[in-house]
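User: ok so my PI wants both of these folded by tonight, can you help

Assistant: No problem, let's get them done. Here's the first:
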Amino acid sequence: MSVRELVVLGTSSAVPTPRRNHNGYFLRFDGHGVLVDPGEGTQLQMRRAGVSAHDITRILITHFHGDHCLGLPGVIQRIARDGVTHPVYCAYPAQGAHYFDRLRHASAFGDTDAIRPQPLCGEAAACGGDADLQVSARALDHSIACYGYRLAEPDGWTMLPDLLARRGITGPDAGRLKTRGHVTAPDGRRVELAECARPRRGQVVAFVFDTAPCAAAEELARGADLLVIEATYTASEAALAAAYGHLTAPQAGAIAAAAGAKALVLTHFSERYEPAEAPRFAAEAAAAGFTGPITVAADLDRVTLPPRRR
């Protein structure tokens, strides 16, 4: 059975706390395992969450501030140590390539050729991916080169058994209809896919970290089924957010609302806030206009993707 869920490995920003590890997010999406921003301590958090090196198919680095990348050496060395043989594509800002190289070879270990670097350039970049999950990136507004990521499943079709039966389409022919777009019915008539199915929108997950409010953040989040976004500060610290290129909870909620996101996960909290203050973040995001479900992330949370939209 396929699994689509976000595993939260860490939710703190620059400074980890006794209750919040540095950033780290693992997206299970059917056969894909996408690790986003492995901060310090990610390898241990993976063990606690039951995520293995073999589960990782892709690593996405938004930027090279330490809370978003200092766990990368341990993760890569674990991939090597555990003998992962499938390719693990690793996207990151090309302007930080020297940091990637230092982290990639931070200490002595038996290296691996499983890691496939993907340096990103420009305002928008395609990160490749597979036919069933495409990855794209857009440059955000931060103090150093920083990208947000959008993972999109292609649109598809939901087969309708009653309509298939009415046209005499059964067994392997139903599969061929979905694959080819048409088949010949037993009575010799050509049957088109649209006669027996309805369009199904592909699911979208977006990650937006470390940015001032900007058009690119909203574009990444457009129509996302799940938007994972920083809310480093509450509204009372808006001046700090502006000074350091971060979002407040109301700004995160406003971006989600304007983009039409379906569900919102707030994370990347300043060390000044205790987990008990989580309701404050949710309330401020909702007050900014977001009416969907809001998760104020805690370490080791698991957030299931919302049901597919029809």
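One down. Here's the second:
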Amino acid sequence: MTDDAQILIAQLLTHQTLARENKLVKRALTDETFRQEVDNRLAACGMKFLDNVYADNVTLALTREIEPKIFGSREVWQNNNLGLARDGVALLVVLWALIILPKRERQEAHQAALEDQEDMFGKDKPMPRAEDASMGISYRALLADFGDKLGKKTRMDMNLGQLSKLGFIERRGDMIMEGPLLDLMMDTDALKDRIVNGALSDIFHRPLPKEAEVIAFPQAAEQDQE
């Protein structure tokens, strides 16, 4: 007998991502009992429901406990996550930092502005859609800034093609835009300070804190994209 939890999980397994506006996704995000049922069924398979308020989509991921049993030991699978080469992982982290972090700042600023406005009915103010806040980055600018570090044009084009197939980015002419997985599969809490204040501090024009841990650029991507 089919039920809504079964249908939602089957849809996510089939389509990889679903929009937050999807009827069953909305229910999973608002109905605690339904969400618990979904989580329990996924946990039995070593999986979890993945979402965050900044993204327009949801997806599924393996739980941390099951990852080594699927991908092998840490040393084996750490550098081969999703089949990406070392420079592909580094490019993924760069794109996340240049597209997602500014988008989140715009979303939070817009949200704060809404909350400052008087609302006589006290209605909830949803987070601005990622589609509206995400601006992307120019391919030519990316190549000029990072081409020498990431294998030059041939390697970058190859890795961009793979990231597009995996759902991390979308290509729209010269622009590289956020894909459905870019803001879901990267651990912002673990990455943000280490990337912004470390590996990409020169790009964000922020002084390096005196006691900050400095991580060499490519290695940072390897360590964090697990």
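Strands lie at 17-19, 47-50, 57-62, 137-138, 169-172, 175-178. The chain is about 55% helix and 10% strand. Good luck tonight!
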